[in-house]
Amino acid sequence: MTRVFSGIQPTGIPHLGNYLGAIQNWVALQANHECIFCLVDLHALTVWQNPADLRAQTRQQTAVLLASGIDPEKHILFNQSAVSAHTRLGWIFNCVSRLGWLNRMTQFKDKVGKDRENHSAGLYVYPNLMAADILAYKAVKVPVGDDQRQHVELANDIVKKFNHDYEVEFFQEIEAFVPAQAARVMSLRDGLKKMSKSDPSAQSRIDLTDDADTIALKIKRAKTDPEPLPSSLEGLTDRPEARNLVGLYAAMDNLTPEQVLARHGGEGFGPFKKALADVMIARIEPIAKETSRLLDDTGHLDHVLRTGAARAAAIANPIVDEVEQIVGLLK
Ligand code: AMP
Ligand code: TRP
């Protein structure tokens, strides 16, 4: 069975972008893949986190993933820092990866803006650790949103350089698995900005813990333009907010954007937003309710993560032992 690996940072509550870009695919891939899903708490540290919040959010995200349909018995769910193979391989990849490659990473450039000097070294080498996450398991398929494509390409550069430098065929190239719809969900307040956990406005995103009324209100207040919906895709050109809402509807209701416009073209945003809120509530509300139930039993959540980490370590440790052997560390 093909091995899948993916990760999410426990830095806030997962939102609709995380769900449609990643989590929904993770759940679907479980049917016919061997899946390893990871709360990447070490990646979270690349930006300062309040320690108590980081611990709480790691549990909360575990609850959201379980509520979304991740099966921790057939597959593996754990937090990154519990398996030391990630940092062991991460260091070796820091030495394989090139500064020139990291300098091209658009996510780093977007995050630091003009204030590059003041960010952590960890944030800069973050993609090397991400490559280690995947390759410590020799996973080959990586379900992620569009913003992670470039990091997966960098992981493949590491694969090629590692095999070349040590004259081995040890790692195999990996494949990003990006959804056809909603691979890049935009903010509800600005159709040109990605929906993000770090956006200061809670109105900009739908959290997977939002109740029905909150979802309805956020959709009602979502930024739009005064024109009715067009009947064809061309009519969405230069209308980023309208395009985002149509894409969300399509992704939530398993339609293409063309089918959504065939149904709702000509409608004003009032009735369209009402229909969109209905499909969204039907999908998100059960997740929110189950998350809150699971959060009452942190003992169970910790047990899931501990068991997952032990199973993950049993796969990753022998692989990373072999890498250390290849590069010449005396063991
Ligand atoms: P993060 O929250 O940055 O750890 O992202 C976890 C996963 O969600 C990654 O696969 C991202 O590509 C995906 N993701 C994050 N934000 C969005 C978004 N606005 N649209 C689509 N996918 C997203
Ligand atoms: N960098 C990813 C993000 O911010 C999270 C991540 C860390 C990841 N390690 C990974 C995703 C390995 C896929 C595979 O979204």
Walkthrough of the structure:
The chain has 331 residues and is mostly helical. The chain folds into two domains: 3-183 and 298-327, HUPs (Rossmann fold); 202-293, Orthogonal Bundle (Tyrosyl-Transfer RNA Synthetase), CATH 1.10.240.10. Helices cover 54% and strands 7% of the residues. It contains 13 helices and five strands. The strands form two sheets. The chain has a three-stranded parallel sheet with strand order 1-2-3. The protein has a two-stranded parallel sheet with strand order 4-5. Helix 1 (16-29) links the parallel strand 1 and strand 2 (34-39). Helix 3 (51-68) crosses helix 12, helix 4 (85-96) packs across helix 13 (298-327) and helix 7 (121-135) crosses helix 8 (149-165). It is globular. The two termini are 32 Å apart. The relative contact order is 0.15. The mean pLDDT is 97. The structure holds adenosine monophosphate and tryptophan. Adenosine monophosphate binds at residues 8-9, 17-18, 21-22, 144-145, 147-148, 183-185, 194-195, 197. A motif ('KMSKS' region) lies at residues 194-198. GO terms for molecular function: ATP binding; tryptophan-tRNA ligase activity. It catalyses: tRNA(Trp) + L-tryptophan + ATP = L-tryptophyl-tRNA(Trp) + AMP + diphosphate + H(+). Catalyzes the attachment of tryptophan to tRNA(Trp). ATP binds at residues 9-11, 17-18, 145-147, 185, 194-198.
